Amino acid sequence: MVQNKQVLKSPGRRLKQQRILYRQSALSGGTPLGAPRAVCDLRCGRASRDGLLEARPGGLARRRGARAGGGDRKGRGNPRRLEHPLFRKTESLPGQLLRSHHKLKRRPPSWSAPLRASLAFPQLSWCLARRLAGAALARGPQRPLPPGRPRRRSLRSPPGPPAAPAQAAQRLRGVVPAPGSLLARPQPASPSSRPEGTAGRESGSEEFAADLLLSNSCIPFLGSSEGLDFQTILLDEERGRLLLGAKDHIFLLSLVDLNKNFKKIYWPAAKERVELCKLAGKDASTECANFIRVLQPYNKTHVYVCGTGAFHPICGYIDLGVYKEEVMFKLDTHILESGRLKCPFDPQQPFASVMTDEYLYSGTASDFLGKDTAFTRSLGPTHDHHYIRTDISEHYWLNGAKFIGTFPIPDTYNPDDDKIYFFFRESSQEGSTSDKTILSRVGRVCKNDVGGQRSLINKWTTFLKARLICSIPGSDGADTHFDELQDIYLLPTRDERNPVVYGVFTTTSSIFKGSAVCVYSMADIRAVFNGPYAHKESADHRWVQYDGRIPYPRPGTCPSKTYDPLIKSTRDFPDDVISFIKRHPVMYKSVYPVAGGPTFKRINVDYRLTQIVVDHVVAEDGQYDVMFLGTDVGTVLKVVSISKEKWNMEEVVLEELQVFKHSSIILNMELSLKQQQLYIGSRDGLVQLSLHRCDTYGKACADCCLARDPYCAWDGNACSRYAPTSKRRARRQDVKYGDPITQCWDIEDSISHETADEKVIFGIEFNSTFLECIPKSQQASIKWYIQWSGDEHREELKPDERIIKTEYGLLIRSLQKKDSGIYYCKAQEHTFIHTIVKLTLNVIENEQMQNTQRAQHDEGQVKDLLAESRLRYKDYIQILSSPNFSLDQYCEQMWHREKRRQRNKGGPKWKHMQEMKKKRNRRHHRNLDELPGAVAT
């Protein structure tokens, strides 16, 4: 009884109370009471074992009395071996933290999380690594996944190389809020399988989305499983919803909140088709499934949907209901039809389609091997059904075409002149050479084309195509071409007949790698189609300008009253017109960009541009087109092109956000002007991204002005969203020049009260340290100044072999005592210079550290968490330099070392208890001997 009272008065009672409070707060949806204490204790120099244990939520959701690994038989689980969300694969820790310890049978000690963070990023300070662990500990437990359910990938920034750790530190500090917010939070599991048309919402997703909305960051769609390939997105801004096509699934989401009462339809491929697909040598997971590639609005109540069907395309209709308030989402399985020439066989093949007037125009391959490519028209009203396609007999109509985009664009005020413009790239062979080149094209057909009467029956009789040029003019006359068209976006204007055409192009060369954005006008495109035709005598000849007689009506024009009232249909075209367009579908001249070259380009970088959407923004000093560019590594670039004097263009990269954790190619992007949101799809998931995050640029007028973001302006208190109104308001913005001196007239007052971040950093002699400094503007240049200890003079710091200047800060190798001082990081943009961060570096002598460690060892003091990390600092460097020694092996050794230390520490206690037990046994035997009738043996 006395021992029990001692146990209740011990620190374990406080730990038990903290667990009970944590469980109660977790069940009620509140904040764990132990988490803030742990976060405070995990800061530099104030770490404690109790703080870590208080913040450990692992195993709190277990049934009372259940055994955790290493727990005693009475049901009290060992807190060091309880399941902890810090060591889950999907926990938001950078680099090697995601791939560690899940294979070990025993859980590592509580200090291994900051240890692993410091090993993943050796240049980061131990303090930052511990803050990473503290943030993960304070978040609370994850909801366990159902058995057999694969874990969904979380949308986080990719683990950068160890040589550039400051990028992760930048995101953790909130400089780049979008991926930072995603990095700092775990993601709930995917929902359970539901029948078609059922709704669901993940537990905790509402809080997760609200928190990200407050930080103006990304909002991921949490209702998806891993690897669903979100390639198709259909926006319905009138009803405020989004249709999402994926692998074997179709989702119905809300534009405001992707995770609120979403619905889904499960539409897999037939089992026999999947087996045939596997027998054909296709991959079972990435090809032999029903990948949704077509989502087009058929009418006000139905959406036309097509999927690859395991290399057997199939199409159907989705019923959405009549009224806006009516919640209906059902696939009519009784009206299914073949998807050949409507949907590609291969889920990875480029494809384009558009639905207009109940007709489906699509460009795709018509066979299993993907060699026969065609641009077709199908469906239509029952009384006026005309199936039309390109001529397969003429190889120079289409030659291995990869379709990118299809758009209906009116040409005149007469609806009979409306045309369908489609953009693609194809192979081309000039003359007798065997080398094939890739050319980007724009083609067009008339909407009222029904084919020929005696020739080109059920074939296009108005098909024409022209080349799109996107190149950098060279000084010697040789242009650098970006030949491969990747994406097309049409920016609407007040005149629906003249949208602005934006195209993303990449190079075909393996030596010169680059991407570019070129802008075209519809007037230039129409001028080329109204120009001379190209002529080719045979396959061994080159294309030349056709100088012969052109028949009437001009080939490529639509039958309408605009040209000839007597010709009411393409079947009324004369035979010479049909024969001419069959042999001359190519225009001789090419379409060039309006600026003469690319509006934006990226050369010799590690990524390629894949997607583009453009928003026309009205700013204080003019109107600007803001481009959002997706890449093949999961990043999104926010770019504005500014016109200068003499038609010069300035490229300004406003933001570069890492949206997805892995280097996943961005497959689709859609822009919602009503919601001011960008929806991004990839193989890893769907993300909703705000078009503007003005609060990330800073709290000063100068920072907001230097950002040059057309969405943002200084309102007198903060950098906020700019909305053009008729009322006169003091909004300060300078997108064209970004000069804060002319805009922020009180700039002298702000400089006198400079709000630069001030930090104190400690470094150990002969070790390396990293001084982080990241400018908020990508156009700023960084300069470092140092004020030595005991000196008031500042001098510019010159990099050398020991002091290395990087993009994210200053790396000092082999610290010396003379390196102590105050470091100033200043950003310069144009003529404006301001201090970003002020760092005070204190160098601790190596002998002082060794003496302190020796004294602690001699006195037998229990080292805290921070002291243990300093003792093992040299071990970390040794591990990093050894390529054959893995992180798991090191953590396993640390685990056994910690257990031996605990066993040695508790040795005298157990020895004393054993002696007490022996004494009791002797006393018991002695009492038995004294009893009457006892027989000695």
UniProtKB/TrEMBL annotation:
GO terms for cellular component: extracellular region. Residues 70-91 have a biased composition (Basic and acidic residues). The keyword Glycoprotein applies. Keywords: Developmental protein, Disulfide bond, Glycoprotein, Immunoglobulin domain, Secreted, Signal. Residues 99-108, 898-926 have a biased composition (Basic residues). Its main location: secreted. Residues 771-840 form the Ig-like domain. One of its GO terms (molecular function) is semaphorin receptor binding. The keyword Secreted applies. Residues 204-691 form the Sema domain. Residues 165-174, 181-195 have a biased composition (Low complexity). Belongs to the semaphorin family. This is Semaphorin 3D. It comes from Equus caballus.
